[in-house]
Each structure stands twice: as C-alpha cells, then as structure tokens.
Specification:
Number of domains: 2
Order of helices and strands: EEHEEEEEEEEHHEHEEHEHEEHHE
Number of helices: 8
CATH topology of the largest domain: QueA-like
Strand order of the largest sheet: 2-1-17-16-14-3-12-13-15
CATH superfamily of the largest domain: QueA-like
Helix content: 10-25%
Number of strands: 17
CATH class of the largest domain: Alpha Beta
Shape: globular
CATH architecture of the largest domain: 3-Layer(aba) Sandwich
Oligomer: single chain
Structural class: alpha/beta
Radius of gyration: 20 Å
C-alpha cells in the first residue's frame, strides 16, 4: 500500500490546540463495522458499551521531558528525553544548529546541570546528566506537547495533558495516550456502575509517535520502539470477557499496540508480556484481542491512521474522516473522539 492512500484534506482551523473546558464534552463519531457512522457526544459511551464489556487503558504518565539549554559556546539547544537508561543516562533527541559530537557538553538551567553527549544509538543521542534525570526534569522540564500545537506548553497543559488515572510511578512517556484524555473520574464511576469493567496496560509513548512515514511503500516503514507491559491481571480479565462473549475495548492506539504485541508474543493468544515493541499495524493485520477502539482523529499519512484503517478498513475510515471534516470535528490530541468497531 502507498503512503498517499492515507492522505486527506484537513483545514488548519480544525486542529485542536487547546482542550475544551470539560474533558467529557468532546464529540464522538461512532464508526460501525459495516462502515455506517453516527454522531454522538462522548458521554454516550455509557449507552454504546454493554455491561460485561472491558475497557483497557494505558496508565503511563507524561514526563516534563523537554529541556531548554545551551552549548559551552552559548548556542541554544533543546533536549527531549525519550527514554531513561538509569537515573543519570538517557536516550534523547537534541535540537541544535549543528549536531553535537561525542564529548560535547550542554548546560541546563543556570549552568548547574551538565549534560555530556556520549554517542548515538540509531536516531537518538546517548547522554549523561550530572544530576538525577527525574529531579532535573521536575525542576527545569516542560511538558512535550505535540509539535502541531505550534505553541509552548502552558499552565493548562500540566493537568489536561495527563490522564486522570495515570500511575505516578510510571513517569516515562513523552506524549499522552490522548484517547484517555476524554475521561474524568465521574464518567469512570458511571461506567463502573453500569457494569463496564476496566483494566490497565502500560506503554511509554515515545516521540517517534510524531515522526512522519518517509517511505512511499508503507510496508518498508520501520516503527520506533516503545516499552510496554501487559500484566497477568489484565490478561485474566480479557480472557473472562472473551469467554462470556463481551467486547474488549482498547482506549487509544497505545493500548491497542500493547495488547496486540502481547498477543503476537504468545502466538496470537493474549498473555502477560513485558518488553519493547515495534509492532506496525496497517491494513491486512488480523487483530487478536481488540474488538472496539476509542481513539482521536489522526494526522494524514500517519501510522496511527493506518492502525485504525486496519481495524475498520481504509475506505470506511476516510469516509468517516471526510464526514468529520464537513461536520467541523476537532482533530488530534485535544480534539474529538471516534469509537471504531472492528470490521
């Protein structure tokens, strides 16, 4: 399949650069298995889900991973922590006028934190911090909001670019699992009262989620690597849900990738699994676990658009997206949502 097969026209004014006042006030476009679609409010999931269904959510927490600094010569640099190897060494993206070499020293804050470049690993820099990384991020870091916001992180992002159910001990993502941003505590309580279960996986979202596909033939694309964990408790609930004929509902593409990675590691059947995943889901993929998906509207020609096209199909998704544009739905991380039934 060609990259151009996943293109669509998106007016710039439909990009949601700020969240709505209420998490649950977004709109929801329900795409049925047969390709028909209906417009809803997000809280209509209370009627669209059935007692006994199981929602799987990603409980990762977003780090304040973006650091502004300078070189020893005074030139400005930006360091984005992608993954911590230990409390002092991390794999990072570095934005500078010239790519720093091994041995280069960068400085954060009032020169009190030194960051030494040790080398490269694929497209990332391996760097050593002179102080514990999490403490540096807490003091100097900014939330790494998506590049298409075209703005710096603001006070509102501190709360709204995190899920209400994140695990504070899982502080390792550089992007939010944005489908989950539509949930507040009240909605979660109401879902539970209706008999809709929830459980968690963890996938630490990397900056690679924003990287464009650079190959015309999408099968030649190499996915970025992300760490994920699918615990036994979640596996047990999934098996019980499947056994009684209810639906497994993934909340977000990150939860989807975690679940399907765990299934692939066990020959197509869900099992507990922890590790790095580079799973690339595009049309033709046979889903092993996910029956329904809550997700936001994604960028043209993105791997996330390819994933949702695999769950439904390319024609259904692009038809639904054209409807969403016509109806002025809000796109991307702070935008509106879709509920997609597996075709």
């Amino acid at each position: 399949m060609q990259l151009s097969d996943f293109n669509f026209e998106l007016p710039d004014h439909l990009i949601a650069r700020y969240p709505l006042q209420s998490r649950t006030s977004s709109r929801l476009l329900h795409l049925h298995a047969d390709g028909k679609y209906q417009d809803h409010c997000f809280t209509d999931i209370l009627e669209l889900f059935n007692p006994g269904d199981l929602m799987i959510l990603n409980d990762t927490k977003v780090m304040k991973a973006r650091l502004k600094g300078k070189r020893a010569t005074g030139g400005a640099v930006e360091v984005l922590v992608e993954r911590m190897q230990d409390q002092f060494i991390a794999h990072c993206h570095i934005k500078a006028s010239n790519s720093p070499k091994a041995g280069a020293e960068l400085f954060i804050g009032a020169d009190e934190v030194k960051v030494t470049v040790q080398g490269r690993h694929e497209n990332l820099f391996i760097v050593e911090f002179s102080q514990p990384i999490l403490a540096v991020l807490d003091r100097y870091g900014q939330l790494p909001i998506p590049p298409y916001f075209n703005r710096e992180a603001e006070a509102i992002d501190t709360e709204r670019y995190q899920t209400v159910f994140h695990d504070p001990n899982k502080l390792a993502s550089v992007a939010a699992p944005t489908a989950s941003l539509h949930f507040d505590q009240q909605l979660l309580v109401e879902l539970e009262q209706k008999g809709i279960q929830k459980s968690f996986v963890t996938l630490h979202v990397g900056a690679g989620t924003f990287l464009p596909v650079r190959t015309d033939n999408i099968e030649n694309h190499i996915m970025h690597s992300e760490w994920c964990d699918v615990p036994q408790h979640t596996v047990d609930l999934i098996r019980e849900t499947q056994a009684r004929g209810n639906k497994v509902i993934a909340v977000g593409t990150t939860a989807t990738r975690a679940l399907e990675s765990a299934a692939q590691a066990h020959g197509g059947k869900i099992g507990a699994w922890t590790g790095d995943t580079q799973i690339f889901i595009y049309p033709g993929y046979e889903f092993c676990v996910v029956d329904r998906l809550i997700t936001n509207f994604h960028l043209p020609e993105s791997t996330l658009l390819m994933l949702v096209s695999a769950l439904s199909n390319q024609e259904n998704i692009l038809n639904a997206y054209r409807h969403a544009v016509k109806q002025q739905y809000r796109f991307f991380s702070y935008g509106d949502a879709m509920l997609i039934d597996r075709a």
